[in-house]
């Protein structure tokens, strides 16, 4: 090694250990600001998923079918995230952390603005959902390279004893982007009115991403490359084939799988259950006014946000595993009581009616349809009950003509008017009464759900960074992250809704999250190592 190379390596190593507080603030601000804007772009669709069903999908699917199709399209944005982690992970480990997340940001901004320009199903037919799916997949590709870059970049600047707290700011970004998307939708609807929002106003939050893209690119372009990466390059330790090394060597491949199933999958389902699914439950099942529901969730997010950094800092003292796995177990045990409490405080009339007049559907020929609307009379009855947010039990027998029992009242056949009248007489509300919504209690419950997100998600960036060596870090941590949060966590919305609507149990979808969270915690405690205090320069 030449003297110049030795000098460059020594200088980079020294800089790694002595990053000033001012420089660290610039690093955190630049990384976090750009990542917030990228998550804002990605989660805008999730915020409007319930709204997009009738806009982009055939009316023949019915309301439940269109909503499931909308959730499946949200999932399409998750499909390419692991492939983005391969493409951009390799770029980040060979070209550099900074250049890579500039590229991913540009791709995300352009594809998000494109959603705001799309024609609807009424104007373009099947071309509308095809274009929507394509842009969602581009967003997923971009997101696949963003997280690994931001987490690695910040961690490689941070002091060893502050790594959890420093990367906690990156962990804020996902919920921060979700919060920003809620504010954008809420503000746009408030400024132009609900009717105009349905016609054209929904496009505004997507088009605003062009401005956010410009700000983010300006801030990030002024950052310097990671000192750990520069030292690694100067010393000749960089991997020429990070993808091959990460996936080809048993040690790293095994650790990627363990981190996926023993940590990230559980954290991913907790993240989605505590924010998106809670919002869908309030609006789609409990029929709380969307503006009110989004407002309460936004307040809960704002109150809980500091705990991302605090939980990261706590992991600097107690260890990453102890904080993450403990949070997974507590969250899994608390979900059913908390969601029952949401019903009690957000729509008490629905709770009273469910207890006083339980609904039973007795029929043969009931089935779950993934890609079509209601087919049989039983399907049509259950579609009506699911849309109304009415829990119901299913009993076989009675032939193809369904018998609907609402308390002591029986309705024979798929008669929407008669079923609606029976529900109304039994006290089932058409929507949550705003005067009966206990805003303080609901916001407190939402805060608890988001707090579980903070405790489990806050230390995870530091943990994943510390698991893998610098030469393959970007590549190796990105894949388990995007498979766990993208596939296992992201599809939670679809499968939880499918379970709930298929069984008639409005709480049934929570089993998806509970079982995966507990499974991850058990595997992680058993097999994953503790990483706090390790040297990430190697």
Question: Key features?
Answer:
single chain, 538 residues, mainly alpha, Growth Hormone, Chain: A, Glutaredoxin, four-stranded mixed beta sheet, 4 strands, 75% helix, disordered N terminus
Task: Please tell me about this protein's structure.
The two termini are 18 Å apart. 55% of the residues are buried. A hairpin with a 2-residue loop joins strand 3 and strand 4. The chain has helices at 3-17, 21-47, 49-56, 62-79, 81-94, 97-115, 121-124, 127-155, 163-192, 194-201, 203-207, 209-221, 227-234, 242-248, 250-285, 290-304, 306-318, 320-346, 348-356, 377-388, 416-425, 439-457, 460-467, 473-489, 492-503, 510-527; strands at 359-362, 392-395, 403-406, 409-412. With 538 residues, it is an all-alpha fold. The protein has 2 domains: 3-347 and 435-527, MFS general substrate transporter like domains (Growth Hormone, Chain: A, Up-down Bundle); 355-425, Glutaredoxin. It is 75% helix and 3% strand.
Summarize the structure.
The chain is mostly helical. It has 26 helices and four strands.
Q: Counting H and I runs of at least 4 residues, what is the number of helices?
A: 26
Mass-distribution shape: globular
Strand ordering within the main sheet: 2-1-3-4
The CATH homologous superfamily of the largest domain is called: MFS general substrate transporter like domains
Oligomer: single chain
Distance from first to last alpha carbon = 18 Å
């Amino acid at each position: 090694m030449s003297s110049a190379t030795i000098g460059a390596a020594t200088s980079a190593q020294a800089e790694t250990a002595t990053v000033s507080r001012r420089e660290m603030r610039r690093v955190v601000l630049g990384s976090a600001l750009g990542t917030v804007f990228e998550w804002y772009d990605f989660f805008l669709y999730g915020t409007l998923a319930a709204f997009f069903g009738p806009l982009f999908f055939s009316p023949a699917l019915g309301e439940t079918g269109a909503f499931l199709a909308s959730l499946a399209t949200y999932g399409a944005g998750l499909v390419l995230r692991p492939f983005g982690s391969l493409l951009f992970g390799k770029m980040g480990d060979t070209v550099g952390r900074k250049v890579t997340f500039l590229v991913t940001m540009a791709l995300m901004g352009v594809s998000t603005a494109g959603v705001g320009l799309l024609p609807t199903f009424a104007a373009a037919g099947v071309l509308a959902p095809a274009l929507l799916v394509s842009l969602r997949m581009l967003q997923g590709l971009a997101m696949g390279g963003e997280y690994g870059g931001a987490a690695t970049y910040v961690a490689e600047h941070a002091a060893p004893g502050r790594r959890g707290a420093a990367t906690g700011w990156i962990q804020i970004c996902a919920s921060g982007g979700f919060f920003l998307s809620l504010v954008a939708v809420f503000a746009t609807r408030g400024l132009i009115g609900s009717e105009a929002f349905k016609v054209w106003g929904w496009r505004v939050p997507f088009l605003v991403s062009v401005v956010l893209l410009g700000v983010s690119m300006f801030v990030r372009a002024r950052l310097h490359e990671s000192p750990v990466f520069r030292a690694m390059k100067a010393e000749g330790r960089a991997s020429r084939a990070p993808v091959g090394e990460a996936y080809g060597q048993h040690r790293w491949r095994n650790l990627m799988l363990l981190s996926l199933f023993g940590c990230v999958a559980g954290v991913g389902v907790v993240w989605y259950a505590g924010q998106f699914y809670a919002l869908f439950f309030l609006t789609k099942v409990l029929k709380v006014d969307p503006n009110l529901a989004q407002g309460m969730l936004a307040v809960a997010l704002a109150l809980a946000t500091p705990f991302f950094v605090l939980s990261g800092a706590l992991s600097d003292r107690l260890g990453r595993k102890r904080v993450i796995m403990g949070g997974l177990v507590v969250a899994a045990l608390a979900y059913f009581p908390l969601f029952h409490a949401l019903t009690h405080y957000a729509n008490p009339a629905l709770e009273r009616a469910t207890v006083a007049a339980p609904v039973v559907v007795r029929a043969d020929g009931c089935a779950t349809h993934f890609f079509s609307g209601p087919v049989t009379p039983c399907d049509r009855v259950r579609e009506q009950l699911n849309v109304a947010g009415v829990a119901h039990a299913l009993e076989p027998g009675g032939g193809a003509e369904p018998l609907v029992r609402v308390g002591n009242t029986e309705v024979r056949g798929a008669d929407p008017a008669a079923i609606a009248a029976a529900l109304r007489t039994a006290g089932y509300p058409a929507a949550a009464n705003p005067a009966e919504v206990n805003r303080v209690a609901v916001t407190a419950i939402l805060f608890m759900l988001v707090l579980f997100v903070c405790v489990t998600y806050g230390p995870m960036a530091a943990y994943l960074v510390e698991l893998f060596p610098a030469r393959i870090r970007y590549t190796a941590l990105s894949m388990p992250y995007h498979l766990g949060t993208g596939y296992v966590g992201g599809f939670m919305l679809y499968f939880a809704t499918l379970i709930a609507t298929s069984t008639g149990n409005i709480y049934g979808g929570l089993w998806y999250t509970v079982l995966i969270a507990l499974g991850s915690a058990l595997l992680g405690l058993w097999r994953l190592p503790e990483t706090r205090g390790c040297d990430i320069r190697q």
